[in-house]
């Protein structure tokens, strides 16, 4: 098992959270706390980079759905960046691929949100 790595930064005014490793019942609380803070303090829109996410369970999915509801309540946006085959399959099986905006990379996500990467 790969312990979850969480990094966050603000790019073009939008918080970007990068997750790597495993998002499971053990790490879900940490991710929830990070997302709550970013949504409530920084901005109602958040990008979550899951390119390096290796595994997600129902607790991890619950954290993402909860964050999606929070940003929706604030007229914001939550999008996922780069889910790999396994993560994409879980999203498809659960039907969550229809709820989340999913982008191939950070530049594409920022562009769709009307922002650009800093030079």
What would a concise description of this structure say?
The chain is of the alpha/beta class and about 120 residues long. Helices cover about 40% and strands about 30% of the residues. The chain contains four helices and five strands, in the order E-E-H-E-H-E-H-E-H.
Walk me through this protein's architecture.
With 119 residues, the protein is an alpha/beta fold. It has a single domain, classed as STAS domain (Transcription Regulator spoIIAA), CATH 3.30.750.24. The protein has four helices and five strands, in the order E-E-H-E-H-E-H-E-H. The protein has helices at residues 28-42, 58-73, 85-94, 106-112, and strands at 5-11, 14-23, 46-56, 78-81, 101-103. The protein has a five-stranded mixed β-sheet, sandwiched between helices. It is globular and about 30 Å long.
List keywords for this structure.
single chain; 29% strand; 5-stranded mixed beta sheet; alpha/beta; 4 helices; Transcription Regulator spoIIAA; 119 residues; globular
Query: What is the overall shape?
Result: globular
Q: Output the helix-strand order.
A: EEHEHEHEH
What is the helix tally?
4
How far the N terminus sits from the C terminus, by CA atoms, comes to: 37 Å
Percentage beta strand: 25-35%
Tally the structural domains: 1
What is the C-alpha radius of gyration, as a whole number of Å?
13 Å
Quick check: average pLDDT? 91
Count of beta strands: 5
The CATH superfamily title = STAS domain
Largest sheet: 5 strands, mixed
Strand order of the largest sheet: 1-2-3-4-5
User: Mind telling me which CATH architecture this is?
Assistant: 2-Layer Sandwich
Taking pLDDT < 50 over at least 5 consecutive residues as the criterion, the unreliable ranges are none
Structural class: alpha/beta
Q: Which CATH class applies here?
A: Alpha Beta
CATH topology: Transcription Regulator spoIIAA
Into which percent range does the helicity of residues fall?
40-55%
